[in-house]
Amino acid sequence: MALKDAHDRFKWACRQAYIAMANMMTAATELGIDSCPIEGFNYAQMNQFLADQQIIDPAHWQIAVMVSFGYRAQPIKPKVRQPLGDLYEEV
Asked: Residue 88 phi/psi, 5° resolution?
């Protein structure tokens, strides 16, 4: 893959971040921790917030994706499924 400029490198790094995020989410599930991937947020505002908090240096780092981790407030409701025979008829 030819990474010709900073934009191409950032796009590639974003895709790589999703791999790491998926692994973190899988590991969290094994520990009984719920997670939710988040995108569609205002990237510029989030980068500025993190810079203002001195968490990142925006000259070198940018946010690609976010993920939240935590414990659910309520237990999972049992799934209700119809019997398979009610869904189709074999002819």
From this structure: -150, 165
Residue 53 region by backbone torsions, left for phi larger than 0, else alpha for psi between -120 and 50, else beta: alpha
Q: 75, 51, 65, 62: which is closest to 17 by C-alpha?
A: 65
Is the entire prediction scored with pTM above 0.85?
no
Cα–Cα distance, 24 to 32 (Å, whole number) = 12
Q: Please choose, from the candidates 3, 10, 5, 23, the residue with its C-alpha nearest in 3D space to the C-alpha of residue 58.
A: 10
Q: Which of 36, 60, 32 is nearest to 47 (CA)?
A: 60
CATH class of the domain at 6-84: alpha beta
Q: What is the pLDDT of residues 13-66, one digit of tens each?
A: 889 999 999 999 999 999 999 999 998 999 999 999 999 999 999 888 899 999
